[in-house]
């Protein structure tokens, strides 16, 4: 099993290192053919405006949507969360509208307002997550199917999950935090081999995949 | 939840988010929008691009704050601005404006010939230039959260940029191979603090992101810098002094991402119009070389 990491721009190497640190193979994805045989995809931090151009130029959009449709886990951090949002406050066109949320870019202000702190994420256990927020977005609205994974003290939503899509406004990959990546790897393994009791409906339309 | 803002992780982290990207010099809000639209990860707001600074001469200073604010209002990507080497009051002003990064830059006329800015004293992160590893480590010990090799700004000539990134990376490889008892002399020779030298020797890489700057004028130049180990590129005069800036900007963005894919580089290099004219190093008198500023 291997996880793709979108490598058009941003901190993709940090994500790849995080996967490798937990023994999961991760590969760089710059072109559609790099998605062949991946069991999940991670969209790193970076600048969403630049990543949007690079996704569109070589036709990555539809293959990523197809991968998500097949049930493979898609995980976005910061800019990755913006790319996944169905709606971007201010009216920017969505990029990969897989997550039924409205996201606000640069929600805390400029770089001087970037911050870090401990965050409760009950879905990952009692141990808090160290959240590094860099010119971070927040989620203003969540759809009915969206589970809130983490909120700031003031209630603003900073991590969500909707079925196979996970997004965080902060950067676990910068904080030595591996639990999100472990969760994605587990979901990817279940996607490859949906066993009994996995609770995931079998999806009739699987993309052609290389045999493993 | 206790939060702490402007930490080392957030300062250095913003540079990590810019990796694999292109930071473009812009002199107006309209240029900033063109850069953002083309896929720039950040813009450097300044009054004159380096080639114009070179042509006009005189003292080059921090840009007019109203011009910088105009660019900050025009785009959603990070905005950087330049302060003169050692001019910590220009840096204080840029921090008060809320710019996302300050470039303590040799492109402007130095304000202090002995001291660089104490960058630890600021909440806003700094990027600085270097020609070699010792210079990079001195800037990092002063608090720089991002580095760039200097090249020779405003020339459209990649030769100095190649020299500097090769030098830094060759020195990193050498340092990585040294024995622990050889690091004392290495630190002395590099003119850098021993603790930092030990850390870098162990890691085999700088503790902050390192871009290439100074002379990039084509997509091939950007890809060359990336193949030589740059983590991203700064393009100054190369975009808005070219015949078709929007196309050149986008082509350089594509080339920086797909730097090791020759077929794709060929595709994005087609029909871009004339690159900036450029000047040979031999025609630049020593006293007009910018890279030697800073130490």
Folded structure, characterized:
The complex is a heterodimer of chains A (212) and B (295). Chain A has 212 residues and is α/β, with parallel strands linked by helices. Chain A has one domain (2-192): Class I glutamine amidotransferase (GATase) domain (Rossmann fold), CATH 3.40.50. Helices cover 23% and strands 27% of the residues of chain A. In chain A, the strands form three sheets. Chain A has a seven-stranded mixed beta sheet. A three-stranded mixed beta sheet of chain A has the order 5-6-9. In chain A, strands 7-8 form a two-stranded antiparallel ribbon. Chain A is globular. Mean pLDDT of chain A is 93; it is low at 201-212. Chain B is of the alpha/beta class and 295 residues long. Chain B is 43% helix and 13% strand. Chain B has helices at 8-18, 29-38, 50-56, 65-74, 88-97, 133-141, 159-176, 183-190, 194-203, 219-227, 237-240, 245-257, 262-268, and strands spanning 3-5, 22-26, 42-45, 79-84, 101-105, 126-130, 146-149, 209-212, 233-235. Classes of the chains: A alpha/beta (212), B alpha/beta (295). Strand 7 (115-119) of chain A pairs antiparallel with strand 1 of chain B.
């Amino acid at each position: 099993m291997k996880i793709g990491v979108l490598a058009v721009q941003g901190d993709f190497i940090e994500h790849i290192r995080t996967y490798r640190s937990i023994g999961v193979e991760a590969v760089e994805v710059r072109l559609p053919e790099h998605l062949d045989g991946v069991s999940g995809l991670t969209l790193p931090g970076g600048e969403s405006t630049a990543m949007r151009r690079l996704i569109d130029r070589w036709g990555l959009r539809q293959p990523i949507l197809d991968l998500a449709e097949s049930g493979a886990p898609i995980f976005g951090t910061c800019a990755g969360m913006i790319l996944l949002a169905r709606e971007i406050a201010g009216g920017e066109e969505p990029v990969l509208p897989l997550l039924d949320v409205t996201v606000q870019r640069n929600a805390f202000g400029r770089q001087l307002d970037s911050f870090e702190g401990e965050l409760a994420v009950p879905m990952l256990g009692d141990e808090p997550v160290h959240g590094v927020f860099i010119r971070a977005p927040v989620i203003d609205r969540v759809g009915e199917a969206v589970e809130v994974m983490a909120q700031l003290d003031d209630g603003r939503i900073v991590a969500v999950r909707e079925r196979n899509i996970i997004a965080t406004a902060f950067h676990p990959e910068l904080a030595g935090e591996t639990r999100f990546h472990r969760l994605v790897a587990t979901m990817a393994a279940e996607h490859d081999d949906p066993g009994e009791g996995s609770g995931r409906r079998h999806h009739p339309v699987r993309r052609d995949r290389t045999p493993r | 939840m206790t939060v702490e803002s402007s930490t080392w992780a957030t300062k250095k982290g913003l540079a990590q988010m810019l990796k694999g990207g292109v930071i473009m010099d812009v002199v107006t809000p309209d240029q900033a929008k063109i850069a953002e639209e083309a896929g720039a990860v950040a813009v450097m707001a300044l009054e004159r691009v380096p080639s114009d600074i070179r042509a006009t001469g005189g003292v080059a200073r921090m840009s007019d704050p109203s011009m910088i604010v105009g660019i900050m209002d025009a785009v959603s990507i990070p905005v950087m601005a330049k302060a003169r080497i050692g001019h910590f009051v220009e840096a204080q002003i840029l921090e008060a404006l809320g710019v996302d990064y300050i470039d303590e830059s040799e492109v402007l006329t130095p304000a202090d010939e002995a001291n660089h800015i104490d960058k630890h004293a600021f909440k806003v992160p700094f990027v600085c230039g270097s020609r070699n590893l010792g210079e990079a480590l001195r800037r990092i010990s002063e608090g720089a959260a991002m580095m760039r090799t200097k090249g020779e700004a405003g020339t459209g000539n990649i030769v100095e940029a190649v020299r500097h990134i090769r030098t830094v990376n060759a020195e990193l490889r050498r340092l990585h191979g040294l024995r622990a008892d050889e690091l004392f002399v290495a630190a002395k020779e590099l003119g850098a603090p021993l603790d930092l030298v030990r850390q870098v020797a162990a890691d085999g890489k700088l503790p902050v992101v390192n871009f290439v700057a100074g002379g990039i004028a084509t997509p091939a130049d950007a890809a060359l810098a990336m193949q030589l180990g740059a983590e991203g590129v700064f393009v100054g005069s190369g975009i808005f002094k070219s015949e078709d800036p929007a196309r050149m900007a986008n082509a350089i963005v594509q080339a920086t991402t797909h730097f090791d894919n020759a077929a794709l580089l060929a595709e994005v290099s087609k029909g871009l119009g004339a690159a900036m004219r450029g000047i040979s190093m031999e025609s630049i008198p020593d006293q007009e070389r910018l890279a030697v500023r800073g130490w």
